[in-house]
């Protein structure tokens, strides 16, 4: 009897505390997961071709996002702090990879770099210069992000994805 009453009270308290306690929870978790990376090109690039992962790992797809550059030879910058983990040519394309820690790595191609494996880089630091060819005539950089060995969409890591056309041009006085 007593135990039953206690349990009922406990359930009631839990039920009452549940919604109230759960309501503010999304707020902190959203802010801790807030993206903090910056665009690897300036001015802010257009996305020429989005991330389009293949349905199966062995099929073809687009394992990164293509960003339009102002011109070939444009500087490509690190979207976040990290350490250069690879600089070299893959097949016929110059590639630089930055390890951001936490299992996350960014790769950029075709980018010619004078950095070396092990070099620390900071957010916004120039990694190298864009070479032509990834988007035909259009100057563009291919940005791939891996979490572990899995390719993920780079764009959610960017801190501000609001379309620039929606930014207020003239606010109320
Ligand atoms: Zn691409």
Number of helices: 2
- Rg, rounded, reads 23 Å
CATH topology value of the largest domain = Glucose Permease (Domain IIA)
Tell me, rounded to a whole number, the average pLDDT. 82
- What ligands does this structure carry? zinc ion
Account of the protein in words:
By secondary structure, the protein is of the alpha+beta class. The protein has 2 domains: 2-32, no CATH class; 47-160, Glucose Permease (Domain IIA), CATH 2.70.70. Helices cover 16% and strands 31% of the residues. The protein contains 2 helices and 11 strands, in the order H-H-E-E-E-E-E-E-E-E-E-E-E. Strands 1, 2, 4, 5, 6, 8, 10 and 11 form an 8-stranded antiparallel beta sheet that branches. The relative contact order is 0.18. Zinc ion binds next to loops.
């Amino acid at each position: 009897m007593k135990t039953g009453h206690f349990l009922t009270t406990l359930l009631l308290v839990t039920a009452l505390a549940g919604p109230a306690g759960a309501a503010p929870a999304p707020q902190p978790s959203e802010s801790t997961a807030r993206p903090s990376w910056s665009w690897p090109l300036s001015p802010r690039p257009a996305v020429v071709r989005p991330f389009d992962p293949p349905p199966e790992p062995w099929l073809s797809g687009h394992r990164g996002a293509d960003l339009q550059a102002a011109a070939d030879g444009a500087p490509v910058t690190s979207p976040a702090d990290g350490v250069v983990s690879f600089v070299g040519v893959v097949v016929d394309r110059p590639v630089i990879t930055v390890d951001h820690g936490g299992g996350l790595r960014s790769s950029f191609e075709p980018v010619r770099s004078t950095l070396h494996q092990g070099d620390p880089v900071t957010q916004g630091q120039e990694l190298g210069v864009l070479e032509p060819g990834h988007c035909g005539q259009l100057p563009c950089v291919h940005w791939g992000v891996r979490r572990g060995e899995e390719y993920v969409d780079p764009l959610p890591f960017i801190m501000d994805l609001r379309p620039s056309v929606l930014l207020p041009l003239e606010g109320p006085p």
